[in-house]
Every structure is written in C-alpha cells, then in structure tokens.
Amino acid sequence: MVSATSLSTPFGTVACEKQAKELNFIEDMTKNAKAIQEKVLVEIMTLNAETEYLRRYQLNGAISNRETFKSKIPVITYEDLQSDIQRIANGDRSPILSVYPISEFLTSSGTSSGERKLMPVTQEELDRRRVLQNLLKPVINLYFPGLDKGKGLYFLFVKADTKTPGGILARPVLTSYYKSDHFKLRPYDPYNVYTSPNEAILCSDIFQSTYTQMLCGLCQRNEVLRVGALFASGLLRVIRFLQLKWQQLAHDIATGTLNPKITDPSIREYMLQVLKPNPDLARFITDECSGTNWEGIIRRIWPNTKYLEVIVTGSMAQYIPTLDYYSGGLPLVSTIYGSSECYFGINLKPMCKPSEVSYTILPIFAYFEFLPQEPTSSTLSGGIDSSPQLVDLVDVEVGKEYEVVVTTYGGLYRYRVGDILRVTGFHNSAPQFQFVKRKNVLLSIDTDKTDEADLQKAVENASELLQEYKTSVVDYTSYADTKSIPGHYVIYWELLVKDPENTPSDEVMKQCCLAMEESLNSVYRQGRVEENSIGALEIRVVKSGIFEELMDFAISRGAAINQYKVPRCVNFTPIMELLDSKVLSSHFSPACPHWTPE
Ligand code: AMP
C-alpha cells in the first residue's frame, strides 16, 4: 500500500525517505480506516475461531461479518474474563483466548479487587505494537527539524519481571518493550539517539537507573535537544531527584568517579569507560542547583531543549503548571495513547496546546468499537436484548463521548477499556479523540487509580480505629495534592466526637492515615513503597458543619437539593479554599503501607 519514495508527504516535506514512508503509511491507514477495521476483525476472528472463548458462543467457524460478531459476542469487562485469565496464569496452555501461545502478561495500572489486571498478550501482538514507535518520530520531526543533530534525554524505566504461578512472565507494557530485542538491538537512527545507555534503562533498581540516566544527561547537556519521560509525574520526579542528589552528581562529574551506591556491574562497567573528570561542568551544576530558584531549571541545564515529551493529558493535566515552572514554558508534547490492552493512536499535532491534544486512532492495532456515553442514546437497547449498542470506529460523531471497547489480536473480545474519549474531528476517515477521563477514577497521582468504592472502603477501615474513642467519620471528601513532589492524597474528615474527654490523639490519626493506605490498591501501595512516586497520605480534620456549607455552596451554584451528593473528590479552588479554611488538624501517614511484588 505504501509506495511513496519522494520526500513530500501529505503532512509536509521531510528530510529522509524512511520518514516519508512512515508518514505516507499513516495517511494510507487513516484513509482506509473502514476497510482496515473490517480486515482486522476478520483476521482476529478467523485466527482465533478455535479458541475456547469463541467456541462458547457457538459461532460455527470463523465470523466473516460484523453483524454476527456484534450479535453473538458479548461486551465484557475484566471481571468477566478473570477466571480464564487465572487459568492461563496458573499454567493452562490450551487455546483459551488465543490460538497463539500467551507469551506474557502485561500488568496494567488498572486494578481489579485491589490487584493489577493481567492482560494476556502473544508475541505477534507485541510485534504489532512496535509499529507505533516508528510512527512517532516522523510526526515530531515535521515540527521540530534538526533532531538528528542531538540527543534525547528520556528517563525510561523497567521493573523487575515477576512470574505467575504457572510460570508466565508478568510485567508492565514498557518493561516488556525495553527488554525486547526491538529496543535493545535497535538500529542506529540519528533521529532517535538517547543520552541514557541501555545499561541504565534496563536496571530495575529505580535509584541506580535514575541516578545514571541523570548523570549521563548532565554530562551531555549541550547535546540534549529534547527531554522526556512517559508521564508528566515521572518527569517531575526526576527533577525532584536532581534537587536531592545534585551534590553527589556534581561530585561524580568533578572527579570522574561513580557514586559507590551504583553497584549494578553493567552500569559500572559502562560508566567507568565514559566518565571523565569535568570540573567546569561540576561547577556549573553546583551553581545552578544550589540556589533556591528552580524556575526554568530544565532550560538552564539543557539549553538546547526544544520541547518536553511527556503525556500531559487525562489525569496528568494536573502537572502542567509545575512542568511550565521547571521548564520555563517549553512546549509540552503528548505523543501517544496506549494501554496494556492495546495501543490506540498518536497525536498528529504535537505542537498544539495540552488542552487541545487529540489522538488519531490507528485502525491496524485492534478492532475498535465505541459505547456512547449519553444516557439518551441508549447505551442499553432495552427489552430482552440488553447488549449495548456500539458504534464502529469510522461512525463516531464529532462532539460525542464514548467508552472505547477493543477486540485484539492478543485475545480480548469486545473488552471495555474504561477510558472515556470525546471525538474532536477526523484525520481522513480515522477519528481523533480527546482523552476525557478514566471511568470512575477519583484520585490519581501517578499511574495509581483510586475509585469511589476504594476510597469508601479505606475510610471505613481506617475509621474503625476511632471506635474506642467513641468517634466516627461524619463525612469525607478528598483531593490529589500535586503541589509537592511527589504528590499525595489529602482526605478531609469531619468527625463526630462523642466523648470530648477522650478524643483521638495525633498518633491515632496517623494510624488512620496508614490504615487508609493499607486499604488502597496494590498500584497505590507500590507507588508509595517501591517507586516513591506518591507521598504519605494526609488526613485533614475539618470543623463540623463544613459539609453542610459545601452543600449550600453547591445549591447556590444551581445544584438541586434533593439530588445533591457530597463530592468524594474536590478540585474546584473555592471549595478547596473553604475546606482548608476550616482545618482543625492535619496528620500524615507515619510509614509506608505493606507491599510486596505480585
Ligand atoms: P496501563 O494499561 O497501565 O498502561 O494504563 C493505560 C491507561 O493509561 C489508559 O487506558 C489510559 O487510561 C491511560 N493513558 C494512556 N495513555 C494516555 C494518554 N496519552 N493520555 C491520558 N491517559 C492515558
């Protein structure tokens, strides 16, 4: 399908043939979205016709048309698949979901019953996803020419592999990618040179990896043309790391020696070859980092940086002001929208404002369907047939919101991802979506996702500690405080104290904070314990009557009194100011909650 050899593309003129080919591929794909989607569906269903899962629906062989597919295969959530996934995890190698063997599980940041969801994938599915990485750079190069003249300081991380009881690898999607030969043995591409060596990226000790990547980034500061991490929260964490460790880093640079805390043999071997004493650079780092003013620090240390490549859509939007502060207003580029379940698409306008970012869905990754979000457009068709009415990729309507549902080569069939997207337009016939929200997520600092039920359970568990003080939680709300790095959960509690002679002490309240953390899901606890990406949970005890004031406030702004519900999460500044003006005491979790690798 791809035939172009010239350097002119529908997106503009590019510098090399490889990039022209990739851009033309995007153009072809988006022009033929409908036909590609039909082909993808037939391919997936034909390939997997003999799986146990599809046989349950008595399809009598492969499905060759969408109508049969839609009428026979149910729309499901992770919970519907859990017993099949458990069997695979326990070592059942029969073709349950996919005819190809499940090569590994991708551990999602979405949770079920408090544990990470396990997404089965095949090698074929993983190979398919690699295409996306190739498509990102040519798009960015259209807007930032000359990226082949320097390097990218990207903070990339892996986690240690774990195995399911049946011996199948379970790890995050990017760990799987960075550990693959696609990444490790990638051919040299002048547009894609990183300052971080593979040795540092592939070290699963977060301190050693971050330290080495930062050290390499500092040593090559003038070559750096772009700075990035996957999510905004991750980039801010490395800035915080620099604030805490610059002295040791400057020492290593001055002396050409490596911090003895870096013990990973392959990192040591690599760094001892490249580290040379550079007192001038060490002095520069000391001058920049020893002051209290960190505004624009990224630009100051890496003066040739053209943009920051970090996802700032969805829950990451809360970090935009802080990123602007540290970067001195560099453009923020959100490139990619993907998940453990499948990859979705890319941002074809990397220079647009964060609030305008839309991802163009690429039809080759999966068969995509969309569940309309308006109650009036019959998410349920009613009557005996209660299967939701889903819309195909090319048929979504601009301005409407949908939940995305995927059928993947890896063995998910009509699976609800849980992301709500709004259609903003089309590129050719492929729709473009703004990420609206993750369904039901109330609080998120990094990749953690806490919903209303999780929070309710945590409050209930923690408030049991108050029983012996004859005290109960009358009402509560919360917000994700991202002013500090790392951010933390703040929970406002209004207490009813029945025995003023025996009120819960600061120590008891701290234990309540810890009890809440113990109740939260494993992604939250891992963020607290292993990654230090989430700070200690805080309970702010507020004056009684404040929740009535909140209700009055909402009613004054038009809420109906009989429909009013206490918002379990607040982010509207006047409401937060009101709550904070009535804080009686504040308490932080005194320790990390329990977490061990799954
Ligand atoms: P995981 O499966 O842990 O990789 O998480 C995937 C989820 O992260 C998606 O389903 C989204 O909810 C969220 N996500 C991924 N990419 C983006 C993006 N570009 N903008 C906003 N949220 C995103």
Describe it.
This protein has 598 residues and is an alpha+beta fold. The chain contains 20 helices and 24 strands. Strand 21 (471-481) and strand 22 form a beta hairpin. Bound molecules: adenosine monophosphate. Adenosine monophosphate binds at residues 108-110, 173, 311, 313-314, 334, 337-340, 417, 419, 435, 438, 447.
Kindly summarize this structure in a few lines.
The protein is an alpha+beta fold. β9 (307-311), α15 (320-327) and β10 form a beta-alpha-beta unit.
Can you lay out the helices and strands and say which pair or pack?
Elements: E1 8-9, E2 12-13, H1 17-31, H2 33-47, H3 52-55, H4 66-72, H5 78-89, E3 104-112, E4 115-121, H6 123-143, E5 151-155, E6 162-163, E7 169-171, H7 173-178, H8 181-184, H9 198-201, H10 206-219, E8 224-231, H11 232-255, H12 265-274, H13 279-290, H14 297-301, E9 307-311, H15 320-327, E10 332-333, E11 336-338, E12 343-346, E13 359-361, E14 367-372, E15 391-392, E16 401-407, E17 415-427, E18 430-438, E19 441-443, E20 450-451, H16 452-463, E21 471-481, E22 488-497, H17 506-519, H18 522-529, E23 538-542, H19 546-556, H20 573-581, E24 583-588
Parallel strand pairs: 3-7, 5-8, 8-9, 9-10, 22-23
Antiparallel strand pairs: 1-2, 3-4, 6-7, 11-12, 12-13, 13-18, 14-15, 14-16, 16-17, 17-18, 19-20, 21-22, 23-24
Helix pairs in contact: 1-6, 10-11, 11-13, 11-15, 16-17
This protein binds adenosine monophosphate.
